[in-house]
Amino acid sequence: MKQKTYDTAPKQETAVLVAVSNKSQPEQVTKEYLLELDFLARTLNIKVIKHFTQRLERPVHATYIGSGKLDEIRQFVETEDVDWVIFDDDLSGSQVRNINTELKRNILDRSLLILYIFEQRAKTVQAKTQVELAKNQYLLPKLTNMWTHLERQRGGTGTRGGAGEKEIETDRRVVKDRISLLKDKLKEIDKQNLTQKKTRTGIVRVGIAGYTNVGKSTLMNLLTKADVFAEDKLFATVDSTVRKLVWDTIPFLISDTVGFIRKLPHQLVESFKSTLDEVSEADILLHVVDISHAGFEAQIEVVNKTLVEIKANDKPVILVFNKIDNYQNQIFDNLEIENTTEVFNEKITYLKNTYIGKKSDVVFISATERSNIEELRSVILNKVKERHFEIYPNYIHNPANDWQSLV
Ligand SMILES: Nc1nc2c(ncn2[C@@H]2O[C@H](COP(=O)(O)OP(=O)(O)OP(=O)(O)O)[C@@H](O)[C@H]2O)c(=O)[nH]1
Ligand SMILES: [Mg+2]
Predict the structure, then answer these.
(1) Atom 8 (ligand 1) nearest CA
(2) Of 65, 204, 225, 336, which one's alpha carbon is 20 to 30 angstroms from that of 157?
(3) Cα of 202 to ligand 2 centre, how many Å?
(4) Cα separations (Å) of 403 from 203, 253, 348, 380?
(5) What domain range includes position 139?
(6) Which pLDDT tens digit goes with each residue over 126-183?
(7) Pocket flag, ligand 1, residue 230 (CB < 6 Å)
(8) Is residue 379 part of a domain?
(9) Which CATH number is 22's domain given?
(10) Residue 253 lies in a domain
């Protein structure tokens, strides 16, 4: 029998991460951001082997970080034969070029990394078109030899690499043409979807929103028996799924959609507008939070800011703290605490009091353990009923007139 060889097995791509800290972004926060960037890289199957940070009040214009740090990174990437150097902040085209000249490695920033993940995850024609549009819009102002070169390497947008200004100009034109073509294509898709959407008017809509990887799709599947892809990777979902439910004779629609993240490239928010309509046009939002994540409060802030950006901040919200099982386990793991249940309950009460507000109900659940799901269902149903009777004050349910499946 022929011996199996692994000569052709693809090499595991590796990366180092780079970020700066300063007065407005203390080192601890930078470290947390890098952990998230690490997770993003892993989602693209890139193994991160070191994090570099530098304290810098202001980024260096030409190379983002200082020359000493750059030298330290160069030595490391040469010795360890690292493929990628990934920066937590956006870089300008000339910064990429200068850093590349120094390090002779592929350079990425957070936005492009997120765009690549979206590109990999997009399944529908609409999502694929939206990502391609966002990527082209992101790259256009940075179009230099370096970026086109990078794009060609990854089999990207099909722009040409070239030596002089002339070639860059041609590339710009090609990208601009592609952008307007993609915009037209999206308009066409939106038009087709409009007919489908029209049948939904007059029915209460609940939108599930939240940071990425908090359990939105898991919750959607639990509430609707839908079959939405859920995984412990960032951006498992990059499109939207809508299902109709009838609870206590009241029909309503519930949707699961793309998650948010810190510094979501605004081109993505822009081109995903129609996907995000499921959130911005919803009557009620389920804002799902991963309570077991150390940075969950900052994540709530990011989600709230993004909701403002897509004009979805003025709705009744049900704040769903998910993964209480994991949160509870973390407390149990801390052996120095004796009365763990008491500590857990105290923390929950504290959070409930902190987040309870005029516009939000607060529920603590575990979607995977199915804890407190009945409580969540009753909170959702109350809100849906309130809204439903605003729309139909004289509504009497007749099962014979149940809506046909609308989606
Ligand atoms: N421990 C625990 N894990 C959970 C819970 N709910 C979801 N998860 C896990 O969290 C991970 C992410 O879940 P998803 O449902 O894909 O999260 P999402 O918010 O839809 O993520 P994106 O689509 O990537 O934005 C999966 O591995 C789930 O199994 C929970 O209540 N407890
Ligand atoms: Mg999801």
Answers:
(1) 215
(2) 65
(3) 26
(4) 10, 11, 39, 20
(5) 122-192
(6) 889 999 999 999 988 887 645 555 555 555 444 444 445 666 777 788 899 999 999 9
(7) yes
(8) yes
(9) 3.40.50.11060
(10) yes
User: Quick one: pLDDT band at residue 4, thresholds 50, 70, 90?
Assistant: very low
Element (H, E) at 326: helix 324-333
By alpha-carbon position, which residue is closest to atom 17 of ligand 1? 215
Q: Are residues 157 and 245 in the same domain?
A: no
Q: Could you tell me the pLDDT band of residue 45, with boundaries at 50, 70 and 90? A: very high
Same domain (yes/no): 361, 246: yes
Q: What whole-number distance in Å separates Cα of residue 210 and Cα of residue 118?
A: 17
Query: What is the 40 CA–ligand 2 centroid distance (Å)?
Result: 15
Taking CA atoms only, the protein residue closest to ligand 1 atom 16 is 230
Whether the CB of 133 sits within 6 Å of ligand 1: no
**Cα distance between residue 37 and residue 69, in whole Å:** 19
Residue 199: per-residue pLDDT: 63
Beta strand 14-21 with 204-210 is unpaired
In this structure, the answer to whether residues 128 and 268 fall within a common structural domain is no
Q: Which of 11-25, 158-172, 310-324, 388-402 has the lowest mean pLDDT?
A: 158-172
Q: Which residue has the tokens 């595991």?
A: 12
Note whether 37 and 176 are same-domain residues. no
Q: Probe ligand 1: pick from 40, 117, 218, 238, max atoms within 8 Å of CB?
A: 218
Q: Write the CB contacts of 237 (distance below 8 Å, at least 6 apart in sequence).
A: 121, 216, 217, 228, 229, 230, 256, 257, 258, 259
Q: Are residues 382 and 316 in the same domain?
A: yes
166 and 313 inside one domain = no
Residues 68, 211 within the same domain: no
What's the number of domains the chain is made of? 3
Q: What is the pLDDT of residues 206-217, one digit of tens each?
A: 999 999 999 999
Residue 406 domain-assigned?
no
Report which ligand 1 atom has the smallest distance to the Cα of 366.
Answer: 31
State both tokens at 33.
């951001």
